[in-house]
Amino acid sequence: MTIKDVAAYCGVSVSTVSRVLNDHPDVKDDVRARVLAAVRECGYVPNNSARALVSSRSTAIGVVSRGLDNPFLSSLIRVVSRRIHELGYTMVLHQIPTQADEVQAAALLQREKKLLGVIFLGGRFNYTEAELRQLTVPFVCCTYTNTFGDLSQDAYSSVSIHDQREAHKAVDHLVAHGHRRIAVLLDDPADSSIGQLRFQGYRQALEEHGIDYDPALTVVTAGYAMQAAYEGVCRLIDSGAAFTAILAISDTLAIAAIKALTDRGRSVPADCSVIAIDGLDISAYTVPTLTTLCQPAEEMASQSVQMLIGLIEGTGSHRHLLMETALRQGGSVARPAAT
Amino acid sequence: MTIKDVAAYCGVSVSTVSRVLNDHPDVKDDVRARVLAAVRECGYVPNNSARALVSSRSTAIGVVSRGLDNPFLSSLIRVVSRRIHELGYTMVLHQIPTQADEVQAAALLQREKKLLGVIFLGGRFNYTEAELRQLTVPFVCCTYTNTFGDLSQDAYSSVSIHDQREAHKAVDHLVAHGHRRIAVLLDDPADSSIGQLRFQGYRQALEEHGIDYDPALTVVTAGYAMQAAYEGVCRLIDSGAAFTAILAISDTLAIAAIKALTDRGRSVPADCSVIAIDGLDISAYTVPTLTTLCQPAEEMASQSVQMLIGLIEGTGSHRHLLMETALRQGGSVARPAAT
DNA sequence: TGAAATGCTGAAAACGTTCCCGGTAAGGTT
DNA sequence: AACCTTACCGGGAACGTTTTCAGCATTTCA
After folding, report:
1. From CA A324, how far away is CA A226, in angstroms rounded?
2. Is residue A135 within 8 Å of A185, Cβ to Cβ?
3. Strand partners, A159
4. Is the CB of residue A1 less than 8 Å away from at least one CB of chain B?
5. Do B157 and B176 share a domain, yes or no?
6. Beta-strand relationship, B139-142 and B117-121
7. B68 and A53: CB-CB below 8 Å?
8. Shared-domain flag, residues A137 and A234
9. Model pTM greater than 0.85?
10. Is residue A64 left, alpha or beta, with left meaning phi > 0 and alpha meaning psi from -120 to 50?
């Protein structure tokens, strides 16, 4: 069942059928109707390969993400995938190992060749302009923006929260509750620039509140691994360092932290408050409910896709969207005990 | 940069380059080496579309899943995607709304046409042979097997756990701890046959242990929504029904249940034990740690892909893999209070 | 009414592969 | 020495589209 069959079926030429299928003008209404009917009756579906071949333009959008282990990324992928399909494109998902970088992504582009654009999801993003020039298609970064490297702002698009500011807000929230000795739990800087940004926000907030930064209260884990966070917090407790609150740079880390605190006999929030950034669904069902700054995941993913497609279709230029988080008050933050 | 350029570059014909690229014999070793070198030097990558067009055979494998909201599905997708790429194929992910059915999947197949096979992930699967005959490519069901419909066992493959038996085991575990009044928390039967199977296992286990089934202890939620589970368990508690344990048919439901119990002032496991089936990573960090029967997600996903590709490549026939779960002892199960 | 413009359609080239088929050269057999 | 096989290679058709171009029919304008 090819376009030729359809053409023969309703006595027109292949060109005409093609025109109808591609919404070209230049075709009389009655002919168009006849063709459409024929298409339906024959159950014809165009061959994507042929289409892509001749127009040297596929419908494929690359989505590269480092792992999907983080539930927050999963939720992004979910709506990214949905939106891409809704808008008539195809998603090509590519996971890269944690330590790999854009060379992989470029290689992917080369291989698939026909990618129309790329969405980068999560992870670090400190590439230089030279490195990224390998990408000849537009790309948008979801959840992070470039703050290192020398990449020009009009070379790409991004959708993210202001990580520093949001971490700052989280600290503010703790300070407002009377906390002064606030530990921070972040992942390996090598893995993600996001953790670093949030860490900077933490430092800044401390400074503004006149609190000295105590390196002993900084716990760095490897990756987003909850086990590492759990162990890190256990070590922190065992070290005897005094702290009344923890800022976790992601919900998963916070959940592991709560577990560690509980296992060590500290009650949350009575003995220690915990606040996080991300806003996973599941965090609303932990015991106690996690207080967290919710990223508008749905919105961010949706916007990323829309921006990329705007770029692909020529409408719209590179932009950098900064989203606001929403504080979801849980039960994990309280005033410190009046010791 | 086409195959023609490569051919010209090293002074052979297009056919020869093609032969080299496709590992055909009939080409002298030195020529092969020269071509390979040329390919590398030119940075040539074959055009997938052209390749798919002429061989009328793409590299696309469809993965249809109803939503990715369930973290267990996310973890499956993650490794499915990875394996598919590792084996040189391309994943086409398609999420269907919860209420949609295989008609969608079939439509997808029609559209993309060139799918080599399909992996169904999660959800219900009670289609008849007639319905599924629309699928002209092999498919494998991951996480569930057909127990309804009249579909012949050699018409498809599956990788799953024995849901009834595992639920049975979960109940056994509770009974071994002295529980007799066991509530069950399951999702909407319309959404998933898995819940139904596990429910059957629950019923069977009760019977074998000489426990009367009490419909009042059955909580049905809509979808995997944690909110529905939370509310359901709250209602159960408020109804005054007596129970000392809950079997949740998934980890997420269990987490919501624990939350509900805690919020209603019941301590887990002192006042009520909770056991679940799935084995999410995060369940190891809840308070208390969830006791759950872990499905070998990695293995299941990996096997699904391998089986499908076996089917596609002609080696191997339809099989039905039944995996074993592993009990991960948490802190959510204890002997009931001796009231 | 004739010429020019316009609207619509069809023929055919092109996209980059794969693969069949025919051809040449080398080696083996009679 | 003539023939046959074998191993290897190149030519060219085909895959199913899109798109350019030319052509015909119809309208519009002078």
Report:
1. 26
2. no
3. A142, A321
4. no
5. no
6. parallel
7. no
8. no
9. yes
10. beta
